[in-house]
Amino acid sequence: MAVDLVIFDCDGVLVDSEPISVRVGTAALRRLGWPIDETEYIERFVGCTNDYWEEQVGETPPGWRDQLRAEYTAAVKAELCAVRGIEEALERLTVPSCVASNGRHSVIRHNLELTGLAGRFDGRVFSAEDVARGKPEPDLFLHAAATMGVDPERCVVVEDSPFGVTAAMRAGMRCLAFVGGLIPTVRLTGLGATLFHDPATLPELIGSLEGKDGDTP
After folding, report:
1. Which positions ≥6 away from 112 have C-beta within 8 Å?
2. 105-114 and 64-79 helices, crossing angle to 10°
3. How many alpha carbons fall within 13 Å on the CB side of residue 101?
4. Which class for 23: exposed (0-12), middle (13-18), buried (19 or more C-beta within 10 A)?
5. Could you tell me if 125 and 146 are in contact, meaning their C-beta atoms sit under 8 angstroms apart?
6. Measuring CA to CA, how many Å separate 121 from each of 6, 86, 158, 183?
C-alpha cells in the first residue's frame, strides 16, 4: 500500500532533546529525594505525556518546578541540535510529512526553531494538547492523519519510544522505530515496528514499507 504521509515524533527523532531532559529531570527528582537514576528515568518517562509526568511527580516544594524549567531551558539553548542524519533524510523525502508529539505546542515549536527544522513543518505540527489522550493512545496520530486528509493505513510513523510505537500500532499505522537513541533496543523489539539505526536511510526505508505491514527484522 502506498505511503501518503510520514508522521514524525519530535523528541529523539527530529531533535536530540532526550539526553537533556533525562539529565535535568533525573537531577531534579533526586533533589526531591527520589532514589532514581537516568536508566530508570528513561524507562518511566521518555516519550510520556506532560500530564503523566505531572501525575507521577505529584506535589513539589514551592519553586521546584520553576527551577526545573529554568535548568531545562538553559540546557536546551546551549546544547540542542537536530538528530544526526535527519536533515539529510528530510531533504530527500518526497512524501508529505508532519509532526505529532506528546510535547506542548510551545516546546515543540521552540525546539524545531532552535534546530532550524521549523520551516519544514510549518502548519503541520500536532501536539497531545490537541486531543483528549496522548500516546500510547492512538488519538494524536489519528488526529494528525485526519487533519492531513490521509487514511491511517497509508501513514508511516517514525518513533523512538514504546509509548509512540504502541500508539502507532493502535492507530493502524505502519511504524519505523529509531534504535539509535536512549531507549534500549529490547524495549522496542516485538511491538510491531520496523527497527532502524540511521535516520539518513529513512527515505529508502519508507519506500520499502509500501505493500508491507510493519514488522521487526
Report:
1. 10, 14, 15, 99, 118, 121, 125
2. 30
3. 26
4. middle
5. no
6. 11, 13, 15, 25
In this prediction, residues 23-33 reach a mean pLDDT of 95
Strands (E), 88-154: 97-101, 125-127
- Provide the 3-class DSSP secondary structure of residue 158: strand
pTM: 0.88
* Distances, alpha carbon 115 to alpha carbons 100, 110, 125, in Å: 17, 9, 15
Q: At which residue does the C-alpha cell 529554568 appear?
A: 70
Looking at the DSSP bridge assignments, the partners of residue 177 are 159, 195
201 DSSP assignment? G
Determine the pLDDT at residue 209: 85
Tell me which H or E stretch contains 9.
none
Q: How many CB atoms lie within 10 A of CB 86?
A: 22
pLDDT tens figures, 159-168: 999 999 999 9
pLDDT (tens digit, 9 = 90+) per residue, 90-125?
Answer: 999 999 999 999 999 999 999 999 999 999 999 999
Chain centre distance of CA 137 = 14
